[in-house]
């Protein structure tokens, strides 16, 4: 049986994380992705990556409209292995923290939490105010994982794609998907 990962891209800077995540997943056998791209993310993808929404959606196994509440991922009876929001805007974080199911992204997040499935949010904002920090605590207490995309610079990434891929590899490792994107600290020393 194929593993299922929900990948959502919301309207914060860092659209590269969601697109690289979908691209990496598309190369893994027995893995299907269910993607939702918010309308704000569509604008960010165009601005940051010079791509259209449809180009990114083609990387997913299945893609849904932001307000398609009849999509399979809106129901707990549709079994998924994990959900990743990359990047996760503060608006989306706030909606998840308060249980406000404003769109399919936040509904799918509520499903992940209620079904006790891994939910990872690559939150993008700096500096953080107290409201945002409390929202992060609220999501963490509900079972979610807050993971700001802070790649390990000690691996000396050579470009933006490699920088993003270090985070993507770590996220996929957290949900049990092994890729060659994850580089382990000290591995070189173990093989010397």
Question: SSE layout and pairings?
Answer:
Elements lengths: L2 E7 L5 H12 L4 E7 L1 H11 L3 H5 L4 E3 L17 E7 L1 H9 L5 H11 L4 E5 L6 H12 L3 E2 L13 H15 L12 H5 L1
Parallel strand pairs: 1-2, 1-4, 2-3, 4-5, 5-6
Helix pairs in contact: 1-7, 4-6
Could you please describe the fold and organization of this structure?
The structure is a single chain. The longest helix has 15 residues, at 160-174. This protein is an alpha/beta fold and 192 residues long. It is built from eight helices and six strands, in the order E-H-E-H-H-E-E-H-H-E-H-E-H-H. It is globular, with a radius of gyration of 16 Å.
The secondary-structure class comes to alpha/beta
Number of strands: 6
Can you say what the CATH homologous superfamily is? Flavin prenyltransferase-like
Number of helices: 8
Estimate the global geometry from the Cα principal axes.
Answer: globular
CATH level-3 fold name: Rossmann fold
Portion of residues in beta strands equals: 15-25%
CATH architecture call: 3-Layer(aba) Sandwich
Mean pLDDT: 95
Radius of gyration, in angstroms, nearest whole number: 16 Å
